[in-house]
Specification:
By secondary structure, the chain is mainly β. It contains one helix and 43 strands. Helix content is 2%, strand content 52%. The strands form eleven sheets. The protein has a six-stranded antiparallel beta sheet with strand order 15-16-17-18-19-20, with no helix packed on it. Strand 30 and strand 31 form a beta hairpin. This is WG containing repeat-containing protein.
Length: 425
């Protein structure tokens, strides 16, 4: 049986076009026969389903069960599934987790208390019951976290650097020196570390409390209160150690900072954030309370209001909104009106495509946006702001792989971009 028929859509204004996936008869049969209790979104050709008794597995786009329903919990994150088979176990250190790949194959055993995926570092971080971490590559092989650009890995604990080793040659490239050792309690202000290369030449002077977040030749320095950035390839400080936060796409000092990106974010002592490039040049001044790189634009807050910037600091969307979402094909923004938010749709250049009149709106996926104008029934808008699938669903999921999971007339199933569904006879 043919899985699907692909119809090409016309692309306008350089936006991404998406194919129409025809719903297979096999998928219709499975849904209409009530084979499963719930149906999840399709990712990489498979969708999560569950039985009435609360076990989860996967079906393909023909409705064939490709992974038996044997998991009690499944969570999707960046192409991977965190799974657990334990029942009647509270969420916490007593519950164990493993990892499935995008095809539902078990690649990391069910032995850990939590999981994080860092795609840019090609690393999956698994948390142990003693709060330490083990790192795997994306194929499920145990490894150290490494930066794929320069072939080096960090050896240390608690996110701090003890030494940096070239994982291909197994030779130490840089190592920390001083009286402080990674994992020790930082009680004394007399404990300081520096960084030297493999022959002992000083790279960073011995005046810091610790180093962390090595990535693509840059290192975050920590004075015990403030952070800065050093370029250890060119052996110079590019950002003085007088900031309270260094981040790329996260807001925490102890999370991986991926300096292979062209820009990074720094927060000054007044809690204001700006953007810097890899040489330390300030691109956007420190005058925003929050900044985050999202899909080629910058989400920002200022004076309690949210807006959008480009990478030169120009306002794409003015600071007059209460909520903002940036997707690949549009911007969505909301204003508070009476007791609820009202959402609108904007182009990525800030042009209004639909006014802020919609009560509930999910983030755009594959060019379509699940939304409910008054909160009772759901439909789908395109990025031009047009309602292209009528509001008739009790609930509406995101489009993924050309299909979306919906709840219609008391039944769960799928629709495609044309509004055709598994409910159609």
């Amino acid at each position: 049986m043919t899985l699907c028929c692909i119809l090409l859509l016309v692309s306008c204004n350089n936006r991404v076009s998406y194919p129409v996936v025809e719903i297979s008869q096999g998928l219709k049969d499975v849904v209409n026969n009530g084979a499963y209790y719930t149906y999840g979104d399709f990712h990489h050709g498979i969708a999560e389903v569950s039985t009435q008794s609360g076990y989860f597995g996967f079906i393909d786009m023909n409705g064939k069960e490709v992974v038996p329903c044997k998991y009690t919990l499944l969570y999707y994150e960046d192409g991977f599934y965190k799974f657990s088979t334990g029942r009647n176990i509270r969420y916490g250190s007593d519950r164990k987790w493993g990892v499935l790949d995008s095809l539902g194959r078990e690649i990391i055993p069910e032995e850990y208390t939590d999981m994080d995926v860092f795609l840019a570092q090609r690393t999956i971080r698994m948390k142990m019951s003693d709060n330490s971490y083990i790192f795997y590559n994306l194929e499920g092989n145990n490894c150290y976290p490494f930066d794929e650009n320069d072939d080096n890995i960090i050896i240390g604990t608690r996110g701090f650097i003890d030494k940096i080793v070239n994982y291909k040659s197994d030779k130490v490239v840089y190592r920390a020196i001083g009286s402080w050792s990674p994992g020790a309690t930082l009680d004394s202000r007399n404990e300081h570390v520096g960084l030297v290369d493999s022959v002992g030449t000083e790279i960073i002077p011995q005046r810091f409390r610790a180093f962390s977040n090595y990535s693509d030749g840059l290192v975050v320095t920590w004075s015990g209160r403030f952070v800065g950035v050093w370029d250890i390839i060119n052996r110079k400080e590019i950002l003085p150690t007088e900031y309270t936060l260094i981040a790329t796409n996260n807001d925490y000092f102890n999370e991986p900072i991926l300096f292979e990106d062209k820009y990074f974010i720094a927060e000054n002592n007044n809690g204001q954030r700006g953007v810097f490039d890899r040489t330390g040049k300030q691109i956007i001044p420190c005058k925003y309370s929050s900044l985050k790189f999202v899909n080629g634009l910058i989400y920002a807050t200022r004076g309690g209001e949210q807006g959008v910037l480009d990478y030169e600091g120009n306002e794409v969307l003015p600071f007059r909104y209460d909520e903002v979402k940036i997707s690949k094909n549009c911007i969505q923004a909301a204003k508070r009106q009476d007791d609820s938010y009202r959402w609108g749709i904007f182009s990525r250049t800030g042009k209004e495509m639909h006014p802020c009149t919609i009560k509930y709106m999910e983030e755009e996926c594959e060019g379509l946006i699940a939304a409910s104008k008054e909160g009772d029934l759901w439909g789908y808008y395109d990025t031009d702001g047009d309602l292209v699938i009528p509001e008739k669903f009790k609930s509406a999921g995101d489009f993924s792989g050309g299909l979306a999971a919906v709840w219609y007339d008391g039944e769960r199933g799928y629709i495609n971009r044309k509004g055709q569904s598994t409910f159609d006879k």
